[in-house]
Amino acid sequence: MGEQGEPFLRFSQQGVDVNRHSQTWASIAPAGAPSFVENTDAAETRWAQVSGGKSYGWIEPRAGYSDRVENPSEPGVIKRWQISIQIGDKESRIEGETEWLPVKQVADKGL
Fold first, then answer.
1. Strands 15-19 and 76-87, sheet pairing
2. Could you tell me which of 31, 57, 58, 34 has the C-alpha nearest to residue 46?
């Protein structure tokens, strides 16, 4: 599901489709991908294939963090997030954390 609860991506045996009316798609669509189309009918979805495979990757804005880190010299969780999903008729969610690692710590770990 997209950021506003709208259908966003659809995974099937035929590949991965995107809802071109999704506001989430409008904010993350890569160059050359099917473009966002303004939706005048809130109930309508408009699917377009973005992958012929069974997976698709994107930069997820709900996991991002753009504010200041309170103590940039210390590691820590800076954001907890969740993404609603639907598999068939069952609704669930993916939950995660966005962590801050100081630059020196990342360099020392070889990341």
1. unpaired
2. 34
